[in-house]
Imidazole glycerol phosphate synthase subunit HisH (Clostridioides difficile), 86 residues
Amino acid sequence: MNIIVDYGLGNIDSVSRGFRKAGIETKISSDIDEIKQADSLILPGVGAFRDSISALDKLGLIPIIKEHVSKGKFMIGICLGNAITL
């Protein structure tokens, strides 16, 4: 499953529509268990870098995302989501 990570910041609906138009099935989630099971993660983002990192940290998602990437699983960051992944 392709999970669009919902951490409270980002243009989630626009990203979801874009993938749907491209014929790619996604699910929006902030659930740690779902994110852990994802084949690929999509990390959208808008706004301030510090706010985004803080939101991800509060939800406990930073180590989950790092683990996902360390396993060689696919992840795409969009806009600020890309900057966060650097």
